[in-house]
Amino acid sequence: MVGRVKRNDCVLVVVDVQDRLINTITLHELIVENIKALVQTAVVLRMPILATEQEKLGDTMPEVKSLLPNTPTRKISFSCCDNSEFMSKLNAIGRKTVIVCGIETHICVAQTVLDLVRGHRRVLVAKDATSSYGTVDRETAFRRMETSGAEITTSETIIYELTENADTDEFKRILEIVKARRTKLQSAPMN
After folding, report:
1. For residues 93 and 70, what is the distance between their CA atoms, to the nearest angstrom?
2. What are phi and psi of 126, to 5 degrees?
3. Peptide bond into 104 cis (omega under 30)
4. Residue 191 predicted with pLDDT over 60
5. pTM score, whole prediction
6. Structural domains in the chain plus CATH codes
7. What is the per-residue DSSP string for 37-53?
């Protein structure tokens, strides 16, 4: 499937954005700000959001968890798709386009994306909202996901496609999210 994403066919999946992992992740300040912007946009647009937590790694970081409308699904598996609770929720939503962000790119994100693609879903991965400990793992995972059929894009591209036009109250709220994100990113160290 090619073309723009449409909000009425999308679900946002936030994979394992947990305190015990986040500070070890490449570009973690950037990643967190972009994840927050995607979640906030999905909330404004009333899009479904599914989040997961790797059971052995604690809770989702508070600044992301506070934005989520639902409690994250706890999992032991690396792929979200190997968790029956997650798949029940995803199937119940009934949408065919899945926007994915989170950590780590080459483990839980990649395995989830590969399974979603194999399951005949359109998958978009927000590259600037997805990372790993190492850049080689991160970049290799993006290439593998893309060659397997996932679309690699950016959070802002996704945000504007979902918003569709500039003359709605929703857009005004989302523009505030984008502006706040940009301001934070300008002042954040990118290490």
Report:
1. 14
2. -80, 100
3. yes
4. no
5. 0.94
6. 7-182 (3.40.50.850)
7. HHHHHHHHTT--EEEEE
